[in-house]
């Protein structure tokens, strides 16, 4: 079997959650695995012996510490550069994988000759209770309801179509995606690159339990308090992802359309924004309202955006 590297980034984890994650990794049915671990917490390191206690079925490589916090995107970039496997899987510190997650994902990659295999996921709370059996089956959001081979590039630039822990990737492709854009997470960046370069597979079966506990790194409208924040930290950031894709690829599919889309969004041109409405309906509906509302109403809209994203 070709080797699959699991890339685990940790930062002062809840040790009970980490233990459950490690056990789920150790119980994978795929037999050729190596775990790469990077601890990004400078002030409080997690004992390596804890990880070795629960990982007994395959080798573990601990990456050297840094003298400053890298942040989760750069942490996964460091892990990616250390990887050597034909296949690679991103791993967070507080989720639970189903035993066949790697095996089924690799079968899908080989069958479809795709660059990334993304699986459906269940949602669990802080006590391991499942409160959503299938994100895809319970959602009507554009970023949850896609299939193998769909052209997701334009919409993924706006909203990430898969979380990293639900992915298994072609290793050579992933390493070629470095450096990751500093304007987004590693998961959104590699999805954009894969959408340009080839096929992304979707497995219509939950292979992971995604823990939602209020302390996840990502979050809707995080650090945004007013309209200026929104345009600077959302729209401008997304435009910078597009610029990084331009630097990497030069010309690529939808390049001119994406440029037109960002011009319409930055200039608050509602008529032109309507052209792209179906790419990200929730986002464009929200942005069409922004020019005509005062900042005093913005906080209410923010609460609604958070509510409907969950």
What does this structure look like?
The chain is of the alpha/beta class. The protein has 2 domains: 4-211, Spore Coat Polysaccharide Biosynthesis Protein SpsA, Chain A (Alpha-Beta Complex), CATH 3.90.550; 227-309, no CATH class. The chain is built from 13 helices and 9 strands. It has helices at 15-26, 48-54, 72-82, 101-112, 135-138, 153-158, 171-176, 186-197, 227-249, 255-266, 270-273, 281-289, 295-309, and strands at residues 4-10, 33-39, 60-62, 87-91, 96-97, 116-124, 130-132, 167-170, 200-211. Strands 1, 2, 3, 4, 5, 6, 7, 8 and 9 form a 9-stranded mixed β-sheet that branches. β2 (33-39), α2 (48-54) and β3 (60-62) form a beta-alpha-beta unit. The protein is globular and about 60 Å long. The mean pLDDT is 93.
From the structure above, extract its key features.
single chain, 310 residues, alpha/beta, Spore Coat Polysaccharide Biosynthesis Protein SpsA, Chain A, 9-stranded mixed sheet, 9 strands
CATH fold annotation of the largest domain: Spore Coat Polysaccharide Biosynthesis Protein SpsA, Chain A
Number of strands: 9
How many individual helices? 13
CATH architecture grouping of the largest domain: Alpha-Beta Complex
Order of helices and strands: EHEHEHEEHEEHHEHHEHHHHH
Could you name the ranges where pLDDT drops below 50 across 5 or more consecutive residues?
none
Work out the strand percent.
15-25%
Instruction: Give the helix proportion (percent range).
Output: 40-55%
């Amino acid at each position: 079997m070709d080797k699959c590297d699991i890339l685990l980034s940790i930062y002062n984890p809840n040790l009970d959650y980490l233990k459950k994650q490690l056990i789920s990794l150790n119980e994978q049915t795929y037999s050729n695995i190596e775990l790469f671990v990077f601890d990004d917490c400078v002030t409080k390191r997690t004992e390596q012996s804890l990880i070795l206690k629960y990982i007994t079925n395959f080798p573990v490589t601990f990456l050297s510490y840094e003298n400053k916090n890298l942040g989760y995107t750069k942490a996964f970039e460091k892990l990616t550069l250390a990887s050597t496997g034909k296949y690679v899987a991103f791993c967070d510190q507080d989720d639970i994988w189903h035993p066949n997650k790697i095996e089924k994902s690799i079968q899908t990659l080989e069958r479809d000759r795709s660059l990334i295999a993304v699986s459906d996921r269940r949602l669990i709370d802080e006590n391991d209770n499942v409160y959503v059996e299938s994100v895809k089956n319970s959602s009507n959001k554009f970023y949850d309801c896609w299939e193998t081979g769909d052209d997701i590039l334009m919409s993924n630039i706006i909203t990430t179509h898969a979380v990293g822990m639900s992915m298994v990737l072609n290793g050579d492709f992933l390493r070629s995606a470095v450096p990751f854009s500093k304007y987004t997470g590693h998961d959104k960046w590699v999805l954009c690159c894969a959408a340009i370069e080839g096929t992304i597979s979707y497995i219509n079966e939950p292979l992971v339990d995604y823990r939602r506990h209020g302390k996840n790194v990502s979050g809707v409208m995080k650090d945004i308090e007013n309209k200026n924040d929104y345009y600077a930290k959302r729209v401008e950031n997304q435009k910078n992802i597009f610029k990084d894709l331009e630097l990497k690829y030069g010309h690529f599919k939808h390049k001119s359309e994406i440029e037109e889309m960002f011009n319409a969004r930055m200039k608050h041109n509602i008529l032109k924004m309507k052209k792209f409405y179906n790419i990200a309906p929730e986002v464009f509906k929200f942005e069409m309202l922004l020019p005509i509302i005062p900042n005093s109403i913005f906080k209410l809209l923010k609460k609604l955006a958070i509510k409907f994203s969950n």
